[in-house]
Specification:
The protein is of the alpha+beta class. The chain has four helices and three strands. Helix 1 crosses helix 2.
Length: 85
């Protein structure tokens, strides 16, 4: 029987896909988890799907960082650069 994916694995799999292949229902499923993990999302009253759908994955030394290509900046300053394992 296959094991269930953790939320981290779901996020990693979704963010690893090209933005145009991400389904809205998959993005919406990540919102509560992102709110619990990233200071940036805790502070926002609403999380816009465009933020999540525009993430790009960057793998460096075992750390996955979400990058917003629109601002060419990372979320590191907002506490989302290190995702839990």
């Amino acid at each position: 029987m296959p094991r269930l994916m953790s939320q981290f694995e779901r996020a990693r799999n979704l963010i690893s896909q090209p933005p145009e292949k991400r389904m809205e229902h998959e993005i919406l499923q990540l919102v509560p988890w992102l709110r619990s993990k990233a200071k940036l999302f805790k502070q926002l009253k609403s999380v816009h799907n465009k933020v999540i759908s525009g993430f790009e994955a960057l793998h460096q030394a075992g750390v996955m960082a979400g990058l917003d290509p629109a601002t060419e900046g990372s979320l590191q300053s907002h506490g989302a650069s290190q995702w839990p394992r």
